[in-house]
Specification:
By secondary structure, this protein is α+β, with helices and mostly antiparallel strands. It contains twelve helices and nine strands. The strands form two sheets. Strands 1, 2, 3, 4, 5, 6 and 7 form a seven-stranded mixed β-sheet that branches. A hairpin with a 6-residue loop joins strand 2 and strand 3.
């Protein structure tokens, strides 16, 4: 562990990082590639991480969580990723869904979901992206309407979602829909908990070139009937609740990218130390050493912004966290892609073999640039919100 990291992190954070790194090392990249090859899921790692309290480290203690926040949960995902076995569903289940329910759910929703999300026995997926709207909450067409009058009337939810991770293994999906404002007639975003087996809730697996244990799905919601209490939080606080989940998503995506980049870089550094050409390790040549050093610097800078975003979010500064989380996600995505590319290039032909486990990361690393929001949309956000420049759209 670097001196800088030691200064910035508490002793508890350092201990958590070391413990999770040890867990990740016991599984490693071989475990992940075996799971992918067999078409199975990371059940063993998920269960052990849950048993050790890592999955719910951000959730309230009164519901079985660790009482921490995004600072702690991002450490868990980063270290598992650095070991070659990241758990993508950590971004979705405890980070997005767990946070939203903990902050805005009813007492009954908290009792029903948070203990299971914390101990890993329950999993939730998250559906926001649509074929024509992307993740633009203002253009989402999935709509919910009351079937009757009064606060106890059922909801009927209709629409489509795409690129929803892990629906097949999730007990429910937190769906971002829109309801009509009775006063203005305008549609406003709201979040609904939709059980996996709800009638009218259909799913189709998307055939992806990306190889991962977590599958991607298209969802079709055809008048899915939901009880009144399927609505999370206040119907009039939809955007606030939505961004309470999206900021953790960006922080955790940064952790995902940083972990993957660190894994790739460690493989390249090890190879550069030992691979000899003309009686000298290739790492002694600046053409090899300098790009690897640059990749390390970029990953470290990304972590600093991620830590800032997590701190702001955990301190309750949603606006400040929004800016920092977007920047962290952007920086980590760029650093991850560059680290993976340089690692593969360092190994040459070996970088494309299954033995070294780097080639598959060429595709996987793009996820940190594309999802959950593209780097171009983040640049839009920064140019408009931070710099105050006019919009082009």
């Amino acid at each position: 562990m670097s001196t800088a990291r030691t200064v910035l992190e508490t002793e508890e954070h350092q201990a958590l990082r070391a413990a999770v790194a040890a867990l990740g090392k016991r599984y490693g990249r071989d475990y992940m590639t075996t799971v992918i090859r067999e078409g199975s899921h990371t059940d063993e790692l998920w269960a052990e991480a849950a048993k050790l309290g890592y999955l719910g480290v951000n959730l309230p203690e009164e519901y079985g969580g660790g009482g921490g926040g995004m600072a702690e949960l991002s450490i868990v995902l980063e270290e598992l990723g650095a070991a070659g076995s990241p758990l993508l569903m950590m971004i979705v289940s405890p980070a997005i869904c767990g946070t939203v329910i903990a902050r805005f759910g009813t007492d009954e929703q908290k009792r029903k979901w948070l203990p299971g999300l914390a101990d890993g026995s329950l999993t939730m997926a998250f559906g926001i992206t649509e074929p024509d709207a992307g993740s633009n909450s203002h253009r989402i067409t999935t709509t919910a309407r009351r079937d009757g009058t009064g606060p106890d009337a059922d909801w009927l939810l209709t629409g489509r979602k795409v690129f929803v991770s892990g629906v097949d293994i999730a007990d429910a999906t937190l769906i971002v829909g829109r309801t009509e404002d009775a006063r203005s007639g305008n549609l406003k975003p709201c979040l609904f908990i939709v059980p996996r087996e709800a009638p009218g809730f259909g799913r189709n697996q998307i055939d992806m070139e990306l190889h991962a244990p977590e599958k991607q799905f298209e969802l079709v919601l055809d008048d899915v009937r939901l009880p009144a209490d399927a609505l999370v939080g206040d119907e009039d606080a939809g955007l606030l609740q939505l961004f309470a989940g999206l900021n953790p998503e960006r922080i955790m995506t940064a952790a995902f990218g940083i972990g993957m980049g660190r894994f790739a870089l460690s493989k390249a550094v090890e190879y550069a130390r030992t691979r000899q050409v003309w009686k000298a390790p290739i790492g002694s040549h600046q053409a090899i050493a300098h790009p690897l050093a640059t990749a390390h610097i970029d990953l470290e800078l990304s972590r600093l912004m991620m830590q800032k975003a997590a701190r702001l979010y955990d301190d309750g500064d949603d606006v400040g966290a929004g800016e920092a989380a977007n920047m962290a996600k952007y920086a980590a995505g760029e650093a991850c892609v560059k680290a993976v590319d340089q690692a593969v290039h360092t190994l040459g032909g070996n970088g494309l073999t299954r033995e070294y486990g780097l080639a598959s990361l060429i595709t996987a690393s793009r996820v940190a640039r594309i999802a959950p929001v593209s780097r171009e949309m983040i640049l839009n956000y920064v140019s408009h919100q931070t710099l105050g420049l006019p919009k082009s759209y």
